[in-house]
């Protein structure tokens, strides 16, 4: 559990640092470039109507809008990511507690204690609670992440095109931010799969041959349930590293097709 707390501390801090770096780079580089060259460049290119972009007053007014909107978007994204990470770390802790309970069960079996059935029943109940917990998370987040992945994918294609064709180099920081968002979700799903495999191994390690026939049936039921773990999904795909790679291949294919059509 202490390892999980340490990992959660590191990941949440990494989330904060990543968002902060992305915000500073996206907002500060255009301002520094504008002050150094005299060319008035905005972080995201769009500007408010009725403000003369050629004057410093108009530029500063538009820049202030970009500054506030960037801060809002990054703050709005950091909150759900941190909350999702806390929820997932809670599920990882549940798995670790199940593994500890299985180790204690093995010790009781080797010592030939009499309350093995009650301990096994308690473990099965905790595992069912863990599955219901994951079902709730998956039901809440699958549509959210489906919409997010589609939006991020489209934005990444357009940002790549803008960087290559329009020399929108501040978009590189925006692309880094999008890539981080996609990687974060898929990496978390992969961690859950790894934890589920560890739980299966812990069940395998229980000396079931020393148990009564009734308890052997119970441990078999638990093993079969653990071999069908719940996964986080985007409705159609799992959120794991293979999905991350497939999505990047799709983004690259769409980007190259867009370049080809534009050149024709």
UniProtKB/TrEMBL annotation:
Compartments, record wording:
Cell membrane
Keyword field:
Cell membrane, Membrane, Olfaction, Receptor, Sensory transduction, Transducer, Transmembrane, Transmembrane helix
InterPro entries given in the database record: 7tm6_olfct_rcpt
The terms describing its cellular component in GO are:
plasma membrane
Molecular function per GO? odorant binding; olfactory receptor activity
Q: How does it sit in the membrane?
A: Multi-pass membrane protein
**GO BP terms in the entry:** signal transduction
| Pfam families documented for this protein | 7tm_6
Output this protein's name. Odorant receptor
**Transmembrane regions listed in the UniProt entry:** 12-36, 56-75, 139-162, 168-194
